[in-house]
Amino acid sequence: MRVHICAVGRLRAGPERDLVDDYLTRFDRTGRSLGLGPVTEHQVEDKKNSGMTAEATLLERTVPNGAVLIALDERGRQISSPDLAGHLEKWRDAGRGDAAFLIGGADGLAPDLRNRADLTLSFGAMVWPHMLVRVMLAEQLYRAASILSGAPYHRA
To answer: Which residues contact 38 (CB under 8 A, 6 or more apart)?
Structure first.
């Protein structure tokens, strides 16, 4: 199952970019034998600053047809790392070819797009900068692959 990170905004060179690259490389290496990956990043920018609806349109264009939609949103469910691994495993085993993780801009995801998601996730009650959310998502994807592979990275 291919994984897509579809995000508003460009992640430029710097510590966040380095962390995302490191964790996604680890995920691709670990996930390959599990039928997970590769990860493709899709970055969109609303240069006209038209708001959430315009951002949603741009994000939707990056999502492959038939992909599982996972919205990252502060109103979403808080789940454990093993639960995320279980969702990925379930979708992969059901023959879903793609999973798309959606990260909105400063105002979040448009309600219509968020409501269409198969799963809405929250990384906690706090609001996180969308650049840090990418780092946390990349790490959690790697952690999920590690859990599914039986590697000792996740110690719960």
So the answer is: 2, 3, 28, 31, 32
